[in-house]
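Reopening: structure tokens for the manganese (II) ion complex, inputs below.
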Amino acid sequence: HSNHKRIIKRTKSLSTTAMKKSLLWVACVSLMMASCKKENELIEVKIPDPEVETKISALGNPADVKVTEGGIFQMRGLKYAYDDLEPHIDGRTMEIHYSKHHLGYANKLNKAVIGTDLELKTVEDILKNLDVNNKEIRNNAGGYYNHNLFFEILNPKGGGTPTGALAEAITTEFGSFDHLQKEITDAAAGQFGSGWAWLVVTRDGKLAVTSTANQDNPLMPNAEVRGTPILAIDVWEHAYYLNYQNKRNEYLTAIFNVIDWNVVNIKYETAISKI
Ligand code: MN
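Re-run output (same inputs, fresh job):
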């Protein structure tokens, strides 16, 4: 039963209907397992009510990833399982990225702020008022903020094109979504070495595409284009190397299939409302 790689644990109480569907699903699986003939069909079965589930793949549960005790800045979890973004982003990459790289930034940030006047500030305030010579804070507050945004704007049901106010702004300022996608992709592909590509709302309320090196971001005082990030694309090799190796462009094409434009639109509207 090699195809039975996903285990789904329901952590919240189920509605009666969902419970019935669930029991039906379990019954189907049991029948199929008994016969072992139609094994390949198992992965086609839809699980009801995904919004009330904590999904746990064989790669582990993102909710189990916690910062070292006493840490101020917490891991925020994922709204999908590590392997839910496949085939666009593989599960192993997501698991290492979230539970090792992102956790590392969170723990190092917590260690760097403890006992300082930064420990009472939000990460956004820390970044906006950053002393760029403080490398511990610059790298780790940057890494923590950037990864929170990156993981938040991904969704297995993402892709397509933006809607709402963001869609209108993109048409006005970039001519079309295709043109915006090309600008983001070019910025991401052209970032030499490790870094990020961004869609930001500038301080005069316009959209802008930019890239930054390492864990820098557009909130920082040293940024070439300053503004509020609403979309982050990680172009560190750890974000794609297992699946795409040196083919950064293939990763960049693929990631547009899992960008959650609803979340990006909400971030756009929030940023615009604060101008
Ligand atoms: Mn990363």
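Residues 1-17, 35-39 have pLDDT under 50 and may be disordered. Residues 153 and 260 are 5 Å apart (CA to CA). Marking as resolved unless the reporter disagrees.
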